[in-house]
Each structure stands twice: as C-alpha cells, then as structure tokens.
Amino acid sequence: MDHFETDTVIAGAGVIGLAVARALALLGQDVLIIERETLIGSHTSSRNSEVIHPGIYYPKGSLKARMCVEGKHKLYEYCAARGLEHKRCGKLIVATTPEQVGELEGIKARAAANGVEDLEFLSRNEALALEPHLSCEGALLSPSTGIIDSHGLMVSYRGEAEDRGCAIAFATSVERVEVAQSGFKVTTGGDTKAIVSATRFINAAGPFAPGLTERIDGLDADHKPQAHYCKGNYYSLQGRAPFERLIYPVPEAAGLGVHLTLDLGGQARFGPDTEWVEGIEYSVDSARSDGFYAAIRRYWPGLKDASLVPAYAGIRPKLSARGEPAADFRIDGPEAHGIAGLVNLLGIESPGLTSSLAIADEVAKQVG
C-alpha cells in the first residue's frame, strides 16, 4: 500500500471542505481532500435553496447565528471581488393568519439580537405594494437576503485551493483515522488505497460526518453523535412566478417551511418540505405535491393546478431527532475533545452555505 505525507487531510469536497481547504492552503499548508464521490459538492452543497441567509432565525449566541452573520458579509464581499454570480434580491417572511403577525415581532427581535438590524415590518398593504400576487396579513422585509450560484462558488474555492497546491482524491473513502504521535495516519479505500500521514485531520463529510467519527481511533464516544436525516423535497414551477423577491412562510419546527426561491435566471422553485428518513436517498415522490399546493396557496392563492413538477431533494444532516429542539452546528476542535489537529464539523445544515467562509476561518483558528 502506498504511503503519502501531507500537512492536512480534509474528508469531504462539499462547500465546507473546499472553503476549509482554501483557507488552509492560503496559510501555506499542503492540503489533500479525500472525497468519496467523483464530483465536488455531490450532496448537501448542491441540493439546497442556494440562498444567502442573513442570520435571522437562530438562537442568540449560537454557532449558527454567529457563523451565518459573519459568513453573509464575507460571502457578499467574496462574490463581488471575484465576479461570482449572486443577487441581493431580498425576501419577505409572511404571516398568513392574524395569529402569525405576532410571531413576526419575535422573529424581528431574534434577528436584532443576532446583529441583523435591517428587517422592516410591513403591513398587509405595504407587502402587497411590493408583491401584488401575495396573500398575507403582514410581512418582514429582509433586504440582505440573496441568492447565489452554489456550484460557481465551490469551483472558485476549489480553484484557489488548487492554485496553492491542494489535491483532491476523488472516488476515495476514509476507512480509518489513527491518532499518531506526530498527527494522524489516514487509511483510504476506493480508487486510491493508501496510508496518508498528516498533522491535521478535518472531518467535513457533511451527512456522512457523524459516521466518520466512528472510524477515528481514540475519539471519545461523547464526540461521536448519531446522525439524523431530514429530507427536503423541491418542486419547480412551470412558467415564471410573478414575484421579484423570495417568499418565506413563518418557520416550522424542522425547517423554514415550503418557501419560494428564485434562481439567478428568475426560475421559481418551492421547498424544502420536511420528510424524516432513515438513510440518504434523493428521489422525489410526486404524491407529495398535494402538500406543496396547500402550503404555497396560503401565501400565493393564484398558484395554478398542475403547475408544479418534481425537481430534486436534499438531506439536512441533523444532530437532533424528530421532535427534539434543533441542534446547533458543532465545530469540535482540540478544546472539545483533546486531540491536537482534529476538527469534526457536525450537523452543518442550513445556513452552512452562507456560513462557509466563516466556518473555514474558525477551523483555521483552531488548527491553522
């Protein structure tokens, strides 16, 4: 079996793994990414709403709140500096019943506690003046919400990392991680069977990250959480939607509800819904469309029959089970588990894409 040496091994070539690779490569480290698939961003990173989130919903002081707010500013600056496709289109969070109007005030207060102070409360008439086809009792306008080409972002991260010498081993799995005196011995399988010695190991495997912790020798069981999978299905709209902004309902327990997002070409898609599943698979059951029509017509009653078609699905890599309070991001570094050079990135669901640069900087601080 071949034996290689490098400074840092990163498991996972999604948006988080690529952002971390870029950050560490810019610091002068030799970086090897090990990716089980044959393409970058094959799972959560390419199966989401492609929204730049402002940091509204998350508990004050949480990693999600801090990483999202920091990441949003960094991401807008990054896209502008490199000419990456994005649009600060704004969104409306809509109350469709009088009871939900009070919930908007709570959302606005939570956002302000996180440092998001640009939300504007709109009356029904003010909201309809912006989006005449909307049905609501009131809304919050979030002007700093945007959309982005997630694939273009990942290609940019990859390019900057590779320009500094980063390599990616595709179709390769991490079979075992041994903690050695000078770092780690990583045994790989798949297309590249080898032992790689490194001083740092970063677990950025997305939905597979909890399972990968089980293959890290010497890591205490308290730092090996169980994975829970909440599938989000998306439907596309046939024809163009009469909206210029993203439309979000008041959030629900496991996610942000079936919202309307627009891609950079103006095409509308709806989702994600919430479907708790046992494993990772991405088929979209066309029978779920009834729930989509019902949810969407609460804020867009003009949605026509037979206008939705199944698009794609993604998996939220959750650390909390169905019915449990939503878990925070976990960036488990040496201070958490006591192993120098090791970082496990766990439960990085939404707003992971928005947070990617901030998460990468945090990892670099811990092991850079």
Describe the protein.
28% of the residues lie in helices and 29% in strands. The chain is of the alpha/beta class and 368 residues long. It folds into two domains: 2-47 and 151-225 and 326-367, 3-Layer(bba) Sandwich (FAD/NAD(P)-binding domain); 91-143 and 228-318, D-Amino Acid Oxidase, subunit A, domain 2 (D-Amino Acid Oxidase, Chain A, domain 2, 2-Layer Sandwich), CATH 3.30.9. The strands form five sheets. The chain has a six-stranded mixed beta sheet. Strands 15, 17, 18, 19 and 20 form a five-stranded antiparallel beta sheet that branches. It has a four-stranded mixed beta sheet with strand order 1-13-12-11, with no helix packed on it. A hairpin with a 2-residue loop joins strand 11 (172-180) and strand 12. Helix 1 packs parallel to helix 5 (150-163). The chain starts with a strand and ends with a helix. The mean pLDDT is 96.
**Outline type:** elongated
Please mark out the parts with pLDDT under 50 across 5 or more consecutive residues, or reply none. Answer: none
What percentage of residues falls in helices of 4 or more residues?
25-40%
What count of helical segments does DSSP give?
Answer: 9
Strand-helix topology:
Elements: E1 2-5, E2 8-11, H1 15-26, E3 31-34, E4 51-52, H2 63-82, E5 86-87, E6 91-95, H3 98-113, E7 120-123, H4 124-130, E8 138-142, E9 146-148, H5 150-163, E10 167-169, E11 172-180, E12 183-190, E13 194-198, E14 200-203, H6 209-213, E15 228-237, E16 246-249, E17 259-262, E18 268-271, E19 275-277, H7 289-296, E20 308-318, E21 330-332, H8 334-337, E22 342-346, H9 352-367
Parallel strand pairs: 1-13, 2-3, 2-14, 3-10, 6-16, 14-22
Antiparallel strand pairs: 4-9, 5-9, 6-8, 7-8, 11-12, 12-13, 15-18, 15-19, 15-20, 17-18, 21-22
Helix pairs in contact: 1-5, 1-9, 2-9
